[in-house]
Amino acid sequence: MRKLTDWLLVFFVAAAVALPVFADSDDNVIDEVVWIVGDEAIYKSEVEEQYRQMQYDGQRIDGDPYCVIPEQLAVQKLFLHQAKLDTITVPDATVFQQVEARINYLIANIGSKEKLEEYFKKPVTEIREELASLIRDQGTVQEVQRTLVKDIKITPAEVRKYYNQLSVDSIPYIPMQVEVQIITLNPKVPQQEIDNVKARLRDFSEQVNKGERDFSTLAVLYSEDRTSAMMGGELGFVSKSNLVPEFANVAFNLNDPKKVSKIVETEYGYHIIQLIEKRGDRINVRHILLRPHVSEKDISDALVRLDSLRTDLEENKFTFDEVTQYVSQDKDTRNNKGLMVNPQTGNPKFEMGQLPQDVAKVVADMQVGEISKPFVMTDERKNKEVVAIVKLKSRTEGHKANMSDDYQTLKAIVEDKKRAEILDEWLAKKQNETYIRIKEGWRNCEFKYDGWIKQ
Questions:
Q1: Is 12 or 295 the better-scoring residue by pLDDT?
Q2: Whether the predicted model's global pTM rises above the 0.90 cut
Q3: Where is average pLDDT lowest: 61-65, 227-231, 401-405?
Q4: What is the reported pLDDT for 4?
Q5: Which is nearest to 79 in space by CA: 452, 424, 446?
Q6: Of 218, 281, 356, 443, which residue is the least packed, with the fewest Cβ within 10 Å?
Q7: What does the alpha-carbon distance between residue 207 and residue 36 come to, in Å, rounded to a whole number?
């Protein structure tokens, strides 16, 4: 059975990604109240709209949609009512940031702001408002859930009890996992290439400041941040903490929307920035990003350097652990002896499909303790090529979970079960305390949770 948190998350994703595309439907259905939860009504139009959205988005519905969807809406309303009682809110800055990120994602996929408005049959301002409401509700429900389960503590005895009660067939299967250490080098960029990039950016700035070209037009044509380039370089409203420091320091000191910033260097390349609007502690700017590009010779030189390092490591002149902090240019791993950390779990164990693709290809045929030959990989976060060597630190073959090797995995399962139990108990209590009425014709359902229809 899907947990309450997972069940609600799928519902919210469907709502947030598939906005009301069908608001102009020709069904001509007279609206009616089909559920009442406390002082909140659920309308037939809401259910119809949500059903169509979920169909459009390919979301699987486990059961009759006219039973499943209103129940999901009812659960949501119970959590939102609790949020009002506990004065739980989501910061506006968080909502705005997520709205802009999703608007940018939609525009990038659809092609332009105009196409987005045509597709959803409404202005982008209205789309933003609807998204803001959905995201605020989603964040509020999640915050209520976090509050309810925040004091969960699982002891080793509880994990052992859970494991000992499992039948042989129900013991979780743990796929093969690996631990990988990495050293990366950024191929040296010739100074002439850097000078050329800066000269192009200075030329762009001059054209904008003289009124010869629009910044947004230049961004569309030339910026190497392709996601924002599609929106004329616009980033959407963000706070200072959402930007790399070098960029933020310049962007937040801009005051004249007609002027272009000085050239800013960050780990992603070189930028020029134009202010659009400031709102309190948030800012909306455009930028143009250009990256100096390395030549085949620069890459070859970096490969040769790492190949020499690999020879020294194999001859035991020093260890991988020792050399990483002095040689590697991967700031995320160099102070951790090169050990990569799985962003999905927060620990160093990766299933093969969780590794960066270029690393997974190399690691697949390696033996534990082996150091790879140098290879070129794409740093997906910065969208640039780097040169790397990796060491396979450990490999744990796929197996049935056991207490000695998989305690953390089993503990997470027990914690998850405890959270689900607490939330289900809370929901049952709220159902009992809340006035709930379901219209005839909408009651003959196999609901996920008992307690909606009171005798």
A1: 295
A2: no
A3: 227-231
A4: 54
A5: 424
A6: 281
A7: 60
